[in-house]
Design goal:
Strand content: 15-25%
Distance between the termini: 38 Å
Radius of gyration: 16 Å
Bound molecules: guanosine-5'-diphosphate, magnesium ion
Number of strands: 7
Order of helices and strands: EEHEEHEHEHEH
Strand order of the largest sheet: 1-3-4-2-5-6-7
Number of helices: 5
Largest sheet: 7 strands, mixed
CATH superfamily: P-loop containing nucleotide triphosphate hydrolases
CATH topology: Rossmann fold
Number of domains: 1
Helix content: 25-40%
């Protein structure tokens, strides 16, 4: 399945702009060029929403899209790109920091280009969100670029880098591989996480 109706609900350029969400939020996080905006468009089928580019770091601000009235999908600025201009990179970096710290997120999708190795950045994101109690799954992107056995090997290797229960999805926006499964996972995961939150006693 794909999401069918989509609208840009909110864009936050500063931490003060983060919305108080009325729906669960699934956030796409990952290095610049890891394929966040492209994956978001793939999840949306025909209803293209996010700008994608040859130019890394194009996404400015955190953009919240309301999908089928059921969930908010957040496209976040990529990290680790030095070529976009110092000021813009720093502003993006600060916004991402603030988002990891306290931004609205129910479920995190940490994207990694299947051809790349996870670095300190990915470990830090995993650690910080896990500390907040936010479930994080890994999404290996651009799987059309490598052979099937490389995907298996990568998945296996990643199990030693991240907590063993971490869900690992392999997808390709180009071929459509894994997209339906990921949409289902997002809907189920976000709703589950939301129920868990509601069970916690109010403070
Ligand atoms: N072959 C292939 N290329 C992809 C795929 N997903 C993204 N790309 C390319 O990777 C580049 C970066 O994608 P983008 O979505 O802008 O990355 P972002 O910076 O993380 O938002 C673009 O040139 C995309 O066309 C995929 O599944 N397969
Ligand atoms: Mg982008």
């Amino acid at each position: 399945m794909r999401f069918t109706t989509i609208e840009l609900a909110h864009t936050a350029f500063r931490p003060a702009d983060f919305p108080v969400p009325d729906l669960p939020v699934a956030a796409l996080l990952g290095r610049s060029n890891s394929g966040k905006s492209t994956l978001l468009n793939a999840l949306l089928g025909e209803a293209r929403a996010a700008r994608t580019g040859q130019r890394p770091g194009l996404t400015r601000g955190v953009r919240f899209f309301r999908a089928d009235g059921r969930i908010l999908l957040a496209d976040t600025p990529g990290y680790g790109y030095a070529g976009m201009g110092k000021e813009a990179a720093e502003a993006n970096g600060r916004l991402l920091e603030a988002y990891l710290e306290a931004g609205p997120v129910t479920l995190a999708l940490l994207l990694l280009d299947v051809r790349r190795e996870p670095r300190q950045d990915e470990r830090i994101i995993m650690e910080r969100l896990t500390l907040r109690g936010v479930p994080v799954c890994i999404v290996l992107t651009k799987c059309d670029k490598v052979k099937e056995r490389e995907i298996s090997a990568k998945t296996k290797a990643l199990r030693t880098s991240f907590p063993p229960t971490t869900a690992i999805h392999s997808v390709s926006a180009a071929s459509g591989r894994g997209i339906d499964t990921l949409v289902k996972f997002i809907l189920q995961g976000a709703l589950h996480a939301l129920r868990q939150t509601e069970k916690e006693p109010a403070v």
